[in-house]
Amino acid sequence: MTQSTQDYPGERLGLPREGTGSVGRLGRRVGALFLDYGAAYLISGFFDWDPLAILAIFAAIQLVFLPTLQGSPGHRVFGLRLVRLDGAWVGLWRPIIRTALLIVVIPALIWDADQRGLHDKAAGTVLIRS
Predict the structure, then answer these.
(1) What's the confidence (pLDDT) of residue 1?
(2) Rounded-to-integer distance, Cα 55 and Cα 118, Å
(3) What is the pLDDT of residues 103-119, one digit of tens each?
(4) Letter string b/e over residues 95-116, b meaning 16 or more CB atoms within 10 A of that residue's CB
């Protein structure tokens, strides 16, 4: 029986330990999430802060910016970029899957050894430092 260990998150994926191209760590990801959710909350003021409007606006932010800028505004501010595992463009369907699971919340709270949430694993993406 062989035991596969890795020294740092992303090593299995062929990503560097730190710096550009390394796995985006928890602090940056949480900061980006708060920024995106905060923007959605502020914009929802036009809809009387309806909780469903907040989620819909948050989803719209993700769906518009992930395929176009390789990250949401929060990701970009915190120096993160969303890519496929092979480094290619994420396309259109991966952000849809990722966002739907992110809104459910639980998949985003479960990580693997590479600090990829279930929403990223299902979409075949990884959030890296830009």
Answers:
(1) 45
(2) 19
(3) 988 888 888 989 999 99
(4) bbebbbbbeeeebbeeeeebbb
